[in-house]
Amino acid sequence: MSNVMFKQTKIGEIPEGWGERFLEEVAIFKNGKSSPDRSDKYFFSVFGSNGVIGYSNEHNSDDGTVIIGRVGSYCGSVYYSNGKCWVTDNAIIGSVKVNNDSKFLYYLLLNLKLNQHRSGSGQPLLNQGILNSLRTIVPAHAEQRAIAKILSDLDAKIELNHQMNKTLESIAQTLFKQWFVNFEFPGYKKIKIVGDIPEGWKRISLVDVVDVLGGGTPSTTESSYWGEEMPFFTPKDAPVNCYVIETEKEITLKGLENCNSQKYPRNTVFITARGTVGKICMAGCDMAMNQSCYAIRGKDGSEQQYYIYHLIKSLADQLTQNAHGTVFDTITTETFRKIQVIQPSKSVLNLFSTIVEPFYDLILSNIQETRKLAQIRDSVLPILMSGKIKVTH
User: Fold this and answer.
1) What is the extent of the structural domain holding 129?
2) How many Å apart are CA 246 and CA 361, to the nearest integer?
3) Is 256:224 a contact under the CB 8 Å cutoff?
4) Strands of the 288-289 sheet, one edge to the other
């Protein structure tokens, strides 16, 4: 990176070596086509307006395709496909013209915040005409590639963390199933089976294994209750990852004192209990929670929370199937009471926790690192796209 010289143009100062362009001079845009047959057995990703929605054995776009959400709530969202893919008619296919870089186009469109250019009040829409008419500035091909590499290296590390976390949680899930469903835990051959469970294990109600705790929301109009002191978990904060570390709202300690939520420590299991029910995750730090969720803690203490997390995940279908309500589906404490579970021996539980604890420590560390990397990427993106920093290849 080096200092930048600027030149005067009709649109103001822009970096030397950069040019003012309409998007149609940089890329070709066309609508996708209706979705083909999809199956997890197929190879090619199928993109809709909200990203990958399945897989197909057909493709209608080449490597390096940029996908733009065309219609609906995800209108203006931007995705990138390294390989051939299928883009549905809910999205637009973007491909670069000669002497332009496809990854640079992806980051350029992200920086343009396309959802701000959509039309339509009832059904948001972004079309080729709108895209083609947008003005931007772009550098020469070599500098496009250099800028894209900085940003894509950050994204590659983020993706590596995601994949590592999926692998680690999958290993822990497999171990849970092997030990607590198939009863193939260390030393199981020396244990008698009494009835249909190992000796020393027993069938009990789920509420005899866990405490099911509620939350609450303080007055939303009292400003002193809301601020950057503690994350405040609600169903919309339920993450794809097993841990949640940030939330849409944050509550103050004063707000916590004036609602029915406790301060729930790291590794508390949260389950959404009203409306969209059955989303399960763990707190990645101290957190409060609203009344549309339950916090679940093992009666034997925090050292069993990894087991509790997998136990509740294994019971998700039962919990959601037993949800009821006249307006919203709702999981109640009675839902938990009706479910019978097998309580393992203390020694097996302790061994499971000892084995998987390093997995979850690394998962949480990766999530925290990913958050920082995303913040860095998002902060340098507009700077790089403005040319204020000269990037050399």
Assistant:
1) 19-138
2) 17
3) no
4) 249-251, 226-233, 288-289
The pLDDT tens digits of the residues spanning 124-149 come to: 899 999 999 999 999 999 999 999 99
Percent pLDDT > 90 in the chain is 83
CA angle 146, 148, 149 (to 5 degrees): 65
Plot region of 233 (φ>0 → left; ψ -120 to 50 → alpha; else → beta): beta
In this structure, the answer to whether residues 215 and 336 fall within a common structural domain is: yes
Whole-number Cα distances in Å, 265 to 166, 209, 268, 270, 367: 23, 18, 6, 11, 17
The pairing of strands 249-251 and 51-56 is unpaired
Residue 372 has pLDDT above 80, yes or no: yes
CA triplet 111, 116, 121: central angle to 5 degrees? 160
Q: 246 exposed, middle or buried (CB, 10 Å; 0-12, 13-18, 19+)? A: middle
Give the CATH number of the domain where residue 103 resides. 3.90.220.20
- Looking at the domain assignment, is residue 324 inside a domain? yes
pTM of the model: 0.88
- The encoded tokens of residue 160 equal 């590596």
Q: Which amino acid is at 13?
A: E
Q: Are 259 and 133 in a shared domain?
A: no
In a 3-state reduction of DSSP, which class is residue 133? Answer: helix
Burial of 48 (0-12, 13-18, 19+ CB in 10 A): buried
